[in-house]
Write a structure and sequence with these properties.
Layout (H helix, E strand, L loop, with lengths): L4 H6 L28 H18 L3 H9 L9 H17 L3 H17 L6 H16 L3 H18 L4 H18 L2 H16 L8 H18 L6 H17 L2 H6 L1 H17 L3 H14 L3 H17 L3 H13 L8 H15 L5 H15 L20 H20 L4 H21 L7 H18 L7 H9 L5 H15 L2 H13 L4 H18 L12 H7 L4 E8 L3 E8 L3 E8 H16 L5 H12 L10 E5 L20 H4 L1 E4 L3 H6 L9 E8 L11 H12 L2 E5 L4 H6 L4 E6 L3 E2 L9 E3 L5 E3 H6 L6 E4 L8 E3 L3 E3 L1 H7 L4 E5 L5 H16 L4 H15 L6 H4 L2 E5 L7 H28 L4
Parallel strand pairs: 1-4, 4-5, 6-7, 6-8, 8-12, 12-15
Antiparallel strand pairs: 1-2, 2-3, 9-10, 10-11, 13-14, 15-16
Helix pairs in contact: 2-3, 2-4, 3-4, 4-5, 4-6, 5-6, 6-7, 7-8, 8-9, 8-10, 10-11, 10-13, 11-13, 13-14, 13-15, 14-15, 15-16, 16-17, 17-18, 17-19, 18-19, 19-20, 19-21, 20-21, 24-25, 27-28, 31-35, 35-36
């Protein structure tokens, strides 16, 4: 039974703890400005604090009247003009006129930025309060963007005001928690923690100290749900208790909400990390501190989240009902709507209550949109283009409730239409929400929940309706790798190779050399100027129809799509789209792990798991006439070579078909273009290591065989240095690296290739480079092994090369013996030199190895190397020009010296 993991933490994270949190950054005094002030300017600046205070006290008419006394047309100071628009936005915000407030804040920001007031505290205030309003109207991704701007401005230019730092750190950390960005959370918490340890509190009042530290600690405690450290969380809870216990009764009451919600957030941090007893202790403490009805309502919802996590749906339903009794019904309050949705969701999980759940959801939507009767026709514009995790939960849960009812009542076609439309709306909202950067746990959870609904429904659609829906799902997947690859491809086409070479060298040197960092900034600017003139490689959304059009009749793509609980797969061929529900995630993962162990330990029982996986993953699809199969995997499937799977007759898939891999459909769209024309065919590196245990006895023979097949250059023994690799990145179509690799699965950025003298080139360094090769072969151990990162895939050395712009990578999935590697690579490169497509060349190499080694039929020996990316033949034409130019040069030298010799014998 499906449980949305993200729901537990985020369902109530965005209840507003206190209205005054919206302007958590202190108002502060205005910075001086050099432009002469008019009387209107002076009047405005003198009354700024009064207007803000009136608004904070909800004396909104008085605040508006005071602002109206100032004649806007008489303002001459750009700072005053920006502040006027800011104050107008502030009042409109409190009046809950959010659209007008956003417009006013944006106007204030525009005035301040255009007049170079980029360090003004007022610009920071405008960023902060605009972010707050965006959050109020459920535009959370926009809120995150402006909280980040506010934080950076305050942190970089106003660290002398710790109250400002505390407030904006709280706001920014909360936004990062909502988006799920653990890396930035860790950074912000780390830098502010050391900062506040040094703050001098002798010159502030006890109330100011309580205000500053309580808001900062609240933000830190929020952050532990995504960057969990139990000992630090305990420490912060102790600090908060000490702070409020020592405070006067008056001060304690003024800021008590922060104490209450500190335990609220701490409970969710424990709950998400499965510290159930600790979570209950925190929720009990919050309930003990809670005084008003709204806080008691929030407390009840906390216990509901606990019951949900432990799958006690009946008790969760009761707890949500209690919460609803304590909240004032308000269809404009998204928190109220979430409670209603959650209760219906709990009902739907209790068997034979599908109709009751649907009726609850219908009633909810009648409250939200009383004039909108047909949910099958609902659009995002009907929701004022809302964009938040809260609305995603409401919409996607509606899809689930209607889908379950339809599955129990197949004749209810209209309910199917409602479910499909709701799943579509949720997917479109996610597309607006996702910032197109690296995925995180939250994003993966939102995507998987929506993906599960969409795919369940798509299995009921006819083939001609699958493509459009699949486009939407595919365009919601991570675009981080794609964007990085695309940027490197753009550079390859439009940038002077000399600049790219300097950039590569400086990016490695700049990791430890400050002067190199400065030079790199200058080179990057020159490159950006050249790239900006090139637009062909701009982002293109996935269109399944276009992909099908490019496929040949004997080609197919097999795209695996894991969700929260299930694995789905889509087979894309020239004329067909097939979608299947493969099985449970747990079952597939378990079988995959068994098969990988069978392969890597040369277990003779591998045929059992090989056939079982074939039956689950391949057999459901019609691949009878398919010769070339490209697999796009996620999760544990990334660890196994599909070539090793066996049909009922015991024939390996890799012998029967040409199997290759791709990280995404985006990547396939880009790698069929040859953007960079390197001059030489092949450069190979075969380092010699310092110890006998590191020796690779057959690599020299391996690279010499490749050189005979394709020409090029070999760096061996002590010549195979990291610097030699960097110096030759742009000159060769193929980079062959016959060397050791070290894998750090805990910190994948530290995984490295080892050159001569054990010099390492790490994942993070490779990612920084531009490597425009047509192919890189990692003839090293475990180069395809890495860390699975939600939404991003397997972070391995081979993946780093794709980030760097390489069109295709051959890599290993386990420690392949170097003797077998040398033989397979010899066949592979010989096939490439004869013009075979890369994928077919590798398949034929493996078949040749199996044919010539009857005692090494186990897949361990021959399926470990796989090809990811572009499969087309290598373009070896340019290498002939090098030979021709060389011959012409020799001919010219010969003729020159012949003529010179003839002249020297003449007499005059």
């Amino acid at each position: 039974m499906k449980v949305y993991p993200y729901f537990i933490v985020l369902l109530f994270f965005f209840f507003s703890c206190e209205k005054t949190a919206k302007n958590a950054v202190e108002k502060g005094s205005l910075p001086p400005h050099t432009i002469q002030q008019s009387k209107a300017d002076s009047l405005l600046l003198g009354n700024k604090a009064n207007i803000l205070a009136l608004a904070d006290a909800y004396e909104l008419d008085s605040a508006a009247n005071l602002l109206a006394l100032i004649q806007f047309e008489n303002l001459v100071n750009p700072l005053s003009i920006g502040v006027y628009d800011y104050l107008n936005g502030y009042i409109l915000d409190y009046q809950e006129k959010y659209e007008e407030s956003i417009e006013a804040y944006q106007k204030a920001i525009r005035v301040l930025e255009e007049n170079n007031l980029n360090e003004s505290i007022d610009l920071g205030l405008a960023y902060n309060d605009l972010a707050y309003v965006y959050n109020e109207v459920s535009l959370e991704s926009e809120a995150l963007k402006y909280y980040k701007k506010a934080y950076n401005l305050i942190w970089n230019h106003h660290k002398d005001k710790p109250e400002h730092v505390a407030s904006i750190a709280n706001n920014y950390l909360g936004a990062l928690v909502g988006y799920g960005n653990a890396k930035d959370i860790s950074k912000v918490r780390s830098e502010t923690q050391s900062y506040f340890e040094r703050v001098n509190t002798k010159q502030i009042t006890a109330a100011e100290e309580l205000d500053m530290y309580s808001i900062y600690y609240l933000g830190c405690v929020k952050s532990f749900s995504k960057d969990f450290e139990e000992k630090d969380l305990v420490l912060y809870l102790q600090k908060v208790d000490q702070l409020f216990t020592a405070a006067s009764e008056k001060n304690r009451q003024n800021y008590k909400l922060r104490w209450i919600y500190t335990y609220d957030y701490a409970g969710y941090a424990y709950l998400e990390n499965k510290y159930f007893i600790k979570a209950l202790e925190c929720f009990d403490k919050m309930d003990e501190l809670a005084e008003n009805q709204r806080d008691k309502m929030k407390s009840a919802s906390n216990f509901a989240a606990y019951y949900l996590q432990t799958k006690n749906y009946k008790e969760a339903e009761k707890a949500y009902e209690k919460s609803l009794r304590l909240v004032t019904p308000n269809p404009e309050d998204v928190s109220y709507l979430m409670l209603q949705t959650a209760r219906a969701w709990m009902i739907s999980k209790q068997g034979n209550r599908e109709l009751e759940a649907k009726e609850n959801v219908q009633k909810l939507w009648q409250e939200i949109l009383p004039d909108k009767k047909d949910l099958a026709e609902l659009t995002l514009s009907d929701l004022d283009l809302a964009n938040s995790t809260r609305w995603m939960f409401i919409i996607n849960t509606t899809a689930e409730v209607y889908r379950k009812y339809f599955q129990q009542n197949p004749a209810a076609k209209q309910d199917f239409k409602v479910a499909l439309n709701m799943a579509t709306l949720s997917a479109n909202m996610f597309q607006n929400y996702y910032l197109k950067e690296s995925f995180n746990d939250n994003l993966s959870e939102y995507l998987n929940a929506n993906r599960e609904e969409f795919l369940e429904l798509m299995t009921y659609l006819p083939e001609d309706q699958i493509g459009e829906n699949l486009n939407l799902l595919e365009n919601n997947t991570s675009q981080h790798l794609w964007k990085s690859f695309l940027a490197k491809k753009s550079q390859n086409i439009s940038v002077d190779p000399k600049l790219l070479d300097q950039q590569n060298q400086l990016r490695i040197a700049g990791m430890s050399d400050e002067s190199a960092k400065q030079k790199l900034i200058e080179i990057d600017e020159k490159i950006n100027q050249q790239v900006s003139r090139y637009t062909e490689n701009k982002f293109e959304a996935i269109d399944i129809a276009n992909i099908q059009e490019k496929l040949k009749t004997d080609e197919a793509l097999l795209r695996f799509l894991p969700t929260t609980d299930w694995l789905f797969a889509v087979a894309i061929s020239k004329n067909r789209l097939q979608i299947k529900k493969i099985g449970s995630i747990g079952g597939v993962d378990s079988l995959t792990q068994v098969h990988y162990k069978h392969l890597t330990t040369i277990d003779k029982n591998f045929t059992v798991s090989a056939k079982d996986l074939f039956l689950q993953l391949i057999q459901p699809f019609d691949f009878k006439n398919i010769e070339k199969l490209t697999v796009i995997s996620e999760g544990s499937l990334l660890n196994i070579p599909f070539e090793s799977l066996m049909n009922e007759e015991g024939k390996p898939l890799g012998i029967e078909k040409n199997v290759t891999y791709a990280p995404s459909l985006y990547f396939l769209n880009a790698t069929d273009r040859k953007d960079y024309a390197a001059g030489r065919n092949l450069v190979a590196f075969a380092p010699e290591y310092n110890t006998a245990s590191q020796a690779l006895e057959n690599t020299n023979l391996e690279v010499e065989t490749l050189k005979k097949a394709m020409g090029g250059k070999v760096f061996d023994k002590n010549k195979a240095t990291k610097q030699a690799f960097l110096d030759n990145l742009l000159d060769y179509k193929v980079q062959h690296l016959a060397m050791h690799a070290t894998m750090d699965t805990a910190e994948y950025e530290n995984s490295s290739l080892l050159f001569a003298n054990n010099e390492s080139l790490s994942f993070s360094e490779i990612y920084q480079l531009t490597i425009p090769a047509e192919m890189v072969t990692l003839s090293a151990c475990n180069t395809g092994v890495g860390t699975l990162v939600n939404g991003e895939g397997l972070m391995s050395l081979s993946r780093a090369l794709l980030y760097a712009g390489t069109s295709s990578v051959v890599h290993s999935l386990w420690r392949v013996p170097d003797e077998e590697t040398a033989e397979i690579m010899g066949y592979f490169y010989q096939n490439l030199s004869e013009g075979m497509p890369k994928g077919l060349a590798l398949q034929e190499a493996k078949k040749a190895f199996v044919e010539h080694n009857p005692l090494k039929q186990h897949p361990y020996f021959w399926t470990g190397f796989v090809l990811t990316g572009d499969t087309s033949p290598l373009d070896t034409s340019n290498d002939y020009w090098w030979w021709l130019l060389g011959l012409l040069a020799l001919a010219f030298i010969y003729i020159f010296f012949r003529r010179r010799s003839a002249f020297s014998r003449q007499t005059f």
